[in-house]
Amino acid sequence: xxxxxxxxxxxxLNIIPDLLRxxxxxxxxxxxxxxxxxxxxxxxxxxxxxxxNHQRFVRVPTQEDPFIIYDPDNWVAHGYYQTEEDNNVIxxxxxxxxxxxxxxxxxxxxxxxxxxxxxxxQLVSLQWLIEDYVVHMEHHLQQVVKY
Length: 147
Description:
Blueprint lengths: L2 H20 L2 H5 L9 H21 L12 H8 L6 H21 L8 E4 L3 E4 H19 L3
Helix pairs in contact: 1-5, 1-6, 3-4, 3-5, 3-6
């Protein structure tokens, strides 16, 4: 069921870290406008997304309809990604997602239809969360690098 998603995430992990490291530092750190995220902050947002989805992926099998709130703008602001070393942000994105890939590969099929409450009122399955996680990641990675 999750095989296409696993393959897409594996592919991203095989190509994206090197592509991120090829982005010139000035471009990676440049904010396109006040209040807009730099490419480094977008990458940091993907780290925050990994952290929040990690919570979901491990709590859904053990809790009834867990509710996890995520405020992306505040997480990016208070993660201070803009002042972090470029390679640290890239490495954190890669390592966290390698761990999530491991989790996803090991989710028992019977757990995929368990639910989680997101956005305060939307009940979605673990399978939906996993698939949406990779779609969300691809959307943001395309803002940072071309692949």
